[in-house]
Amino acid sequence: MVDIHGFQYRQSPFIAKCVRITDDNGQRLGSFMFAPPLPFDQLSPAFREQCKWLTRHIHRLYWGSGRIPYACASRVIIDCLTSKIIEVCGHQKKRWMQEILPADYTVIDVSEIKD
Question: What pLDDT, on the 0 to 100 scale, is given for residue 115?
Fold first, then answer.
């Protein structure tokens, strides 16, 4: 399971900030905080306000935090995965994982699975 928290505003792409990877038994395989892909002051005023709101009310992650370059997200995540079948929760997170992983990985949105 890959748990992802990040930022999005309206039609902007989802920007992952914190990624935690666990195996099927719940054992943590990795936890990563990515640096922002661009400086906070380059975001639109409305996007900056959305980031502040998310930080205060949802996940407490700051836009400027993180040490791992955003461009390295794919490599860092792939190095930690133990399976090519990846579970996430949410369509934005599924889309983001599909964009950064090679085509031979399968990403499943568990919120779409019906009993």
Answer: 63
